[in-house]
Amino acid sequence: INEFTSPGARFYLGVAEDADVGSNSLQSYELEANAYFAVEAKESPDGSKFAELVLRRALDRESEQSLRLVLTALDGGEPPRSGTAQLCINVTDANDNAPVFAQDRYRASLREDAPVGSVVLNVSATDADAGTNARITYGFGKMPAKVLQKFAVDAASGTIRLREALDFEDTRAFSLAVEARDGGGLVAHCKVEVEVLDVNDNAPEVTLTSLSSPVPEDAPAGTVVALVKVRDRDSGENGQVWCELSGEAPLSLVASSGGSYKVLVLERALDREEQPELQLVLTAVDGGSPARLGTAQITVLVLDVNDNAPTFDRAMYKVQVPENTPVGALLLRLNASDPDEGPNGETQYS
Q1: Same fold, 100-197 and 205-303
Q2: Which of 45, 115, 253, 288 could be joined to 238 by an S-S link, Cβ 3.0–4.6 Å?
Q3: pLDDT in tens, 89-100
Q4: For 9-90, CATH number?
Q5: Do residues 259 and 325 touch, judged by C-beta distance below 8 A?
Q6: Which CATH class is domain 205-303?
Q7: Which of 237, 265, 235 is nearest to 250 (CA)?
Q8: Of the candidates 41, 60, 43, 63, the residue with the CA atom closest to the CA atom of residue 52
Q9: 326 Cβ contact list (under 8 Å, min separation 6)
């Protein structure tokens, strides 16, 4: 009898035979006490009494898969005599139970450098029905195409795997809708939250946002020469950046808000005649393990200022001139030099 059979349904059980006649013959049927069935005696046109099994209460295969009841046939003699038969009732399954997930919500964490094919987790659902009604197939519910491209679920086992590389800087978490469908078409749902863990896969980016070049050599100490932007797309310690300058130049690095850095002229004034060009390398190192770094080369030209007077190659010249030297004769060649550049270094004599 199927468990979906409605109460009131009747099942013919046949006729018990009694060789006696009259009141000594078969008179009634009785059924062992139970929660589901009763028996009724019916009389056929030829006068024989047959038994009908009547369902009084809905069956549930999941709570009771079979029943064994004793059916008794009684005659009307004194003393009454009886005969018995055993009723073996098998309750067949109906798809009256939907699948049930072990958890309504699953959580998993996955490093962003996890290889394609990595197992995210296993979801599991059970169905109290039997046979094909209990056979569960797993799949994804309605989700954005971007999520469906990243993950795959095994229809038979419920194993969720990575099918495309992750990128923490692009997406830090995914929410998956997973379905479990039984052979009768009933469906259960659960949520899978996948957290993407950051890996130090990005080097710091160093960008020169502004540069004052050339810089006058008489610029005072504290003059801002360049602005540099430093950024690391990673998070946490992987995204924390330290910067340092290297090179023979009287410049230092001073941090300001928002990841910008000011390059300042330090302590002493510049001297173009000593160092006409400043070459520096800015190195940014993050806090990951292993650490990654980014660099930028900064070249600053020093602009000449007329800070040097011409100087003769000697402080005093002596020359002897015969008195009969003709007018226009060359007496002496003088030489003065100026270390400045361009017009500042050109000399005139008088």
Answers
A1: yes
A2: 288
A3: 999 999 999 999
A4: 2.60.40.60
A5: no
A6: mainly beta
A7: 265
A8: 41
A9: none
What mean pLDDT is predicted for residues 39-50?
A: 87
Residue type, 199: V
Q: How many helices and strands, by DSSP H and E, does the chain display? A: 1, 25
Shortest CA distance to 101 belongs to which of 3, 196, 186?
186
| Strand spans (E) along 163-292 | 173-181, 187-197, 205-211, 215-216, 224-231, 241-246, 251-255, 260-265, 277-286
Domain 100-197 CATH (choose: 2.60.40.60, 2.60.40.10, 3.40.50.300, 3.40.190.100): 2.60.40.60
d(CA 350, CA 346): 14
Instruction: Give this prediction's pTM.
Output: 0.67
Strand ranges, E, within 76-204? 82-90, 100-101, 105-111, 119-122, 125-126, 137-140, 151-153, 159-162, 173-181, 187-197
Cis before 45? omega within 30: no
How is residue 153 written in tokens?
């679920």
Q: Tens digits of per-residue pLDDT, 124-165?
A: 999 999 999 999 999 999 999 999 999 999 999 999 999 999
